[in-house]
Amino acid sequence: MKKYTLLTGATGFIGQYVLRRLLAKDVPVVCIARAKGDMTAADRVMELVKQFEAAEGRELPKPIVFTGDITQEMLGLDDNALDWFEANCKAVIHNAASIRFHAPDNDRTKDPYLSNVNGTQHMLDLCKFAEIEQVFHVSTAYITGLREGVCLETELDENQDFANDYQRSKFEAEQMTRGAEHIKSLTVIRPGIVVGDSRDGSTTAPDFGLYHYIQFTTQVMKMARSGGAEGTVKLNIRLPFVGTEPRNLITVDWVADAMTHIITTPELHGDTYHLTPSEATTSSRIVEAMGKYFDYEGIVCIGETIPEEERTEFEKLFFDYATQFEVFWGDEPTFDKTNTNAALADTIPQPPLDDECLRKIIRFAVEECFS
Ligand SMILES: NC(=O)c1ccc[n+]([C@@H]2O[C@H](COP(=O)([O-])OP(=O)(O)OC[C@H]3O[C@@H](n4cnc5c(N)ncnc54)[C@H](OP(=O)(O)O)[C@@H]3O)[C@@H](O)[C@H]2O)c1
């Protein structure tokens, strides 16, 4: 009887957390990973397993690792590997993706389309060949694109527009997976904006959303303190946000706990889950938390864009840096969580993204990523 579950993207930010939890629960896992530098795919995954074992203080079952690349047909697996999958693999957690926001020159042969659309097709082709009928597809809550208001877990194609190629490519990937007739059990997992671990703030992916603003503020504070200024720094930046804009931040440890629970609980299979916060973090709470950490004052949400000629020195820096993210400045949708709450509210409680947790996330990013 087939017993292995394939996890793609095990070396990534979320994948590492999920791999650790699956191994700790004795789930037989097979990974497809790429070689990097002088490390083979197996070296990379086994290095992670060593770290997990050190953290858990015990030996864990080892995953099987194949070298593969989702951008290649049949994930680049050779005939022997394909035979192995046919004989042993019963399910796929398709988590690998490119999180690049824009395809160069809108070229659909490049990332994010290459990995997210073609890569998903290649995963589905492997499933067909190897008679794998169960898929856990890691999508994103932001397949909603530029929709506003309440977005249901049961909705997908609502004629929405998208903020970028990443959102569009993930939408197409989910649509393609839903349309695959050979997949008999499809569970779709749609995380919100995933940030560092609630326990220590750690992340391996400080390169989007909140982290852009932490990086910007780190640099501005260095400039502001370069003359030796001590104590609270006055920055004078009037932000174009109203302050109430919701940001659907969710910590990576909870996302992985939730995913693992859904994957290992058969009664929860076949549905779609918005892994989004019970209560979104507002933009003004983020500004306040950053103010407390960096010890600044004078960054205020005014809800309008200051004209260029009226900008202070720090406002010029802010707009020069942040205008590229303008599409994300507005309101976010409200993500319906009917399935998620029914499945997880009692079993996998969300750690609150309170002041202390935000502080840990900011501290880790500043000290470990941007210093
Ligand atoms: N992070 C978020 O806030 C967020 C939010 C919603 C949804 N998601 C979804 O969650 C999933 C994981 O995201 P993440 O944040 O963990 O991303 P990540 O840190 O960039 O990890 C991506 C993973 O995919 C692998 N991968 C990429 N291209 C590949 C290829 N051609 N062949 C084989 N493996 C490939 C990477 O392998 P290498 O290590 O070799 O590069 C890595 O293991 C994605 O599906 C993403 O769309 C993420």
Describe the structure.
The chain is of the alpha/beta class. It folds into two domains: 4-191, Rossmann fold; 210-247 and 281-328 and 352-369, no CATH class. It is built from eleven helices and 15 strands. It has helices spanning 13-24, 41-56, 79-88, 113-130, 165-178, 210-225, 252-263, 283-294, 313-322, 338-344, 355-369, and strands spanning 4-8, 29-33, 64-67, 89-94, 134-138, 150-151, 185-191, 193-195, 233-239, 246-247, 249-251, 272-275, 281-282, 296-301, 334-335. The strands form five sheets. Strands 3-2-1-4-5-7-12 form a seven-stranded parallel β-sheet, sandwiched between helices. Strands 6-15 form a two-stranded parallel sheet. Strand 1 (4-8), helix 1 and strand 2 form a beta-alpha-beta unit. It is globular and about 65 Å long. The model has no long low-confidence stretch (mean pLDDT 96). Bound molecules: NADP nicotinamide-adenine-dinucleotide phosphate. NADP nicotinamide-adenine-dinucleotide phosphate (NAP) binds next to helix 1, helix 4 and strand 8.
Number of helical elements: 11
Number of DSSP-assigned strands: 15
User: Which fold does the CATH topology of the largest domain refer to?
Assistant: Rossmann fold
| Helix and strand run | EHEHEHEHEEHEEHEEEHEEHEHEHH
Shape: globular
- Report the helical percentage: 25-40%
Topology:
Layout (H helix, E strand, L loop, with lengths): L3 E5 L4 H12 L4 E5 L7 H16 L7 E4 L11 H10 E6 L18 H18 L3 E5 L11 E2 L13 H14 L6 E7 L1 E3 L14 H16 L7 E7 L6 E2 L1 E3 H12 L8 E4 L5 E2 H12 L1 E6 L11 H10 L11 E2 L2 H7 L10 H15 L2
This protein binds NADP nicotinamide-adenine-dinucleotide phosphate (NAP).
The site of NADP nicotinamide-adenine-dinucleotide phosphate has 26 residues, from helix 1, helix 4 and strand 8.
